[in-house]
């Protein structure tokens, strides 16, 4: 069986990891890693691109890498990879995926203890054998055990930031057909979950055949898993599975409701239907007898919209993001569901980076991009001095940048208001990265956790409390520091953190980057219920990242957040008054 794009990318990525373990030149290591990243993003079959002679037109694909791609396309294997596996145990690559274990430690475990698999590493750590190795100790050993446990919980689900654009592109492609009357994404992707299993797409139409044929013949299809008259399934080159169903428009509402889920929400809906003498499934609402058996001779209630499904059951319409059986059915019965925040409510972005630190665009370029997106105001918040890996700003550079921001703000007049800020590191010892006299000169200060993320609950909590209680800190950025899929949230006492944020009127961020989505919805809901101010920001490191805002909005909606809970829905005048009122 010929290798898919995803499988070829996986091989290049493993080659990169093995070369790193071996200690090869970093440029050689990166050449394979960048090739893997390029291949994962290519929407076309590499076999077609190769036949057109276009491999070397792709980013980071030179003649050497192109020749290796051709070799895999022709032979289903790569001789170079096989040689590496004979030299470097392949299990070391899996060990490298454990949080806190890099190539040097993986090589150390191999050379010192002959450990070549995750299971062997866990056995050695449980026996206390790692603590005596050079550069290791009991804390390092425990961190590795925690990393192994976290690795075991990973599900292989796709991040919504990858799955949603791919799914939307397919939906748009199918809706170009005249036979497609209406279409929607369903399942966990429509509910806005952080990670996605399979993608479900529903199309309303009376003639399914052209829709099915177009779907399975898309150029980014790696394998056809099923091709039926009204349902087909494929695996994309990225490895994502997509299912498409075609149904008649008259049953659109019940089908979309059923396939959106969640399972627990659907169970509650079916229970309410039975209370009213009806059976609810994806096809219709059907009358039932006293034994809850469908009366086949009775007329069924067809719903061509989801609104009609909820109306028939006497419920307020429940937005997809709330359908997790977290109290939404009970509130909908009373007609008290919140008016969830929308993109139209957002008028500013309070967290972004420029070329002064690790951003890819200048301040002026970010300003122009924010103007194009309709923002009334914005804050430039480059990294602070301790974050050397992100080219953090010394005090001198921070003040120089603030001067540039203020000059540009004066040039802009009323077009947009630009504030000078910083994303300051909350250091591992709990201290702030800049002294108060410097923070006092900034318009807006974010404090974030970037290091010491494996600390115990008491220590992490105190670091967050120190930042919240600092009179010059306006917002806590990505509060739990989680990143998908490899970094879990810090272990903090969130009751204490939320209470302090409420007391100090300190903003907690909902970071819109799909690799973060932090705060998570459950904490966002607690925060807004307590009256803690929230902000939804992109944490943009390049212009394109400014368009990540919808992910943050969806995450906020899942937390029952309304516009009134979010500070960057305020006018600039109100925001300015709030800043001036800060202690």
Strand-helix topology:
Blueprint: H1 5-22, H2 26-41, H3 46-51, H4 63-75, H5 79-87, H6 91-96, H7 103-113, H8 118-126, H9 138-152, E1 158-159, H10 160-175, E2 182-186, H11 187-191, E3 195-196, E4 199-204, H12 209-216, E5 221-227, E6 231-236, E7 241-247, H13 252-260, H14 263-275, E8 278-280, E9 285-287, H15 306-312, H16 328-333, E10 348-349, H17 363-372, E11 377-383, H18 395-412, E12 417-425, H19 436-439, E13 444-448, H20 457-469, E14 475-477, H21 494-504, E15 507-511, H22 521-530, E16 534-537, H23 549-558, H24 572-581
Parallel strand pairs: 4-7, 10-11, 11-12, 12-13, 13-14, 14-15, 15-16
Antiparallel strand pairs: 1-3, 2-4, 5-6, 6-7, 8-9
Helix pairs in contact: 1-2, 1-5, 1-7, 8-9, 13-15, 20-21, 21-22, 22-23
